[in-house]
Automatic annotation (TrEMBL):
Active site (record annotation): 35 (proton acceptor), 256 (proton acceptor)
EC top class named in words: isomerase
Pathway: Amino-acid biosynthesis; D-alanine biosynthesis; D-alanine from L-alanine: step 1/1
Protein's name in the database: Alanine racemase
Taxonomic source organism: Frigoribacterium faeni
Cofactor: pyridoxal 5'-phosphate
Residues that, per the record, bind substrate: 128, 304
UniProt family annotation: Belongs to the alanine racemase family.
Keyword set, alphabetical order: Isomerase, Pyridoxal phosphate
Lipid metabolism is among the record's keywords: no
Annotated InterPro entries: Ala_racemase, Ala_racemase/Decarboxylase_C, Ala_racemase_C, Ala_racemase_N, Ala_racemase_pyridoxalP-BS, PLP-binding_barrel
SUPFAM superfamilies referenced in this protein's UniProt entry, alphabetically: Alanine racemase C-terminal domain-like, PLP-binding barrel
Amino acid sequence: MTQDVKITVDTTALRHNVGVLREVVAPAETMVVVKADAYGHGAVESARAFVEAGVDWLGVADLDEALELRRAGITAPVLAWLHAPGETFASAAAHDVTPAVSDIAQLESAAAAGVRAVHLCIDTGLSRNGAVESEWPAFFRRAAELAHRLPVEGLMSHLSNTSPEEDGQQAAAFLRATGMLGDLGVEPPLRHLAASAAGLSYDGSRGTLVRFGLAAYGLSPFAGRSAAEWGLRPALTLSAPVTSTKRVPAGEGVSYGYLFRPEHDTTIAVVPVGYADGVDRAASDRASVSIGQRTYRVRGRIAMNALVIDVGDDPVEVGDDVVLFGDPSRGHQSAADWAAASGGITYETVACLSGALTRRYL
Ligand SMILES: Cc1ncc(COP(=O)(O)O)c(C=O)c1O
């Protein structure tokens, strides 16, 4: 049944979004983050659309993701920032992938491998990867020593998006790092710590490059604020056909655990998509879907390969196309609606979609 579940990606929307984001942050450059299979949209096809639309950089978490892009013939600059223990960076050098390095060991390996350039990754308060402030003096000194054969093209950090004050403290730490590097004669042209949230809501932390993930897919990083506010368009639609319908008498239990018992006789329709496809089970009995311009509730528990919707007395038929989420301007539920229904975040709604699902590109 997996083949009946369709992910449709509108590459026109992806290209349009890059145009919007480039204008928003100009004169800063733009990177689009295509990690996690381009947030479920399909890495190679999405990356091609972003590059065609003029994005300056592609960003990925690891070198495997970078190499997938290179194998597909994508030659745009690619930055990768999460590395396996003991990474040699030989593949980065061979395929012209730029690593962001988080410590002296990675810096030395990148230099030994002969990569074209590095970005230095620093921790300004997220407490994830990146060198912490006490490590900066030695890290930066070694980068300055190696700079004649390993150019420091960028300085990067990542915000926690906790509050404007806390993000401001990170931006201040980033400036301290820039100053410290400058004192050593290292002035990386690309200074980047903003992702979608800080990139869209100008807060002084944009630097010279913004790494857009979610916003490039036309989705908003802010709960309660639609990406349409910035003129961004969601690109991904998840849909599946009705496979059967049946009349259910009032009081009859529906799906595992009988979470739902209709108050009145009703018709339920079975849709062959479930949590094995990446649809969050936590949205059981809460999310909605659409058929044409009509909206219906998901009822009962979402199962591994199927969910059930309550269509009342409407003339819904086998084969009717059920849109779980897509573009609200076309009457669909949004990925954010599904995230709200499951108590999750929009990132998960798209990024957790199974790689086994067929993706069709418009
Ligand atoms: C280092 C880094 N930069 C940028 C992004 C893009 O973030 P967003 O999708 O919020 O724009 C991510 C995503 O998690 C990231 O890990």
